Amino acid sequence: MRAPIGHFEDAHPATERRDLLPPPVAAAVTSDMVFVDTDPAKADTAVFVETYGQDLMRHSANCVVVAGKRGQDVTLAACLVLSATRVDVNGAVRRHLGVRKASFAAMDTAVGETGMEYGGITPVGLPPAWPLLIDPAVIETPHVLIGSGARRGKLIVPGKTLATLPGAVVLEGLGI
Fold first, then answer.
1. Where do the YbaK/aminoacyl-tRNA synthetase-associated domain residues begin and end (predicted)?
2. Are residues 66 and 92 in contact, defined by beta-carbon separation less than 8 angstroms?
3. Of 3, 129, 144, 161, which shows the fewest CB atoms inside 10 Å?
4. Domains of the chain, residue spans
């Protein structure tokens, strides 16, 4: 199989490579998602695009876990923005979650709550009760390169498919 974007030697329907995915991701992948096997040492965006194709930068999106606090209550959510932008945590995220303070979740919280590896967290297979905030630019991208839940490998997903994931909310102004 040839990946719809990038220059990858090993691309397969994600449903055929569940063995390389963390359990929550393996359970959630669909037939329109492509798994590309990549070097985990080259998982960070800048090194990744240098290795697998500069054109991937405009197709790459990052998923981050945020923690919103109001009093003693903590709300965890995931945010998905194109890699060339950053998440408006103190504006769009804080307002949407209705919290007084929002920040990136601690690494051990993000890893423990998702069952995924840090640096590979993906919106596919997140806890179903979590809000998944997605910048509109991600949805408008025909094919989006995202984490696979592990540092090894990536998923290529049609942008519009991401809007159908559990808890997905397309949030204007999320990416700045």
1. 46-163
2. no
3. 129
4. 11-170
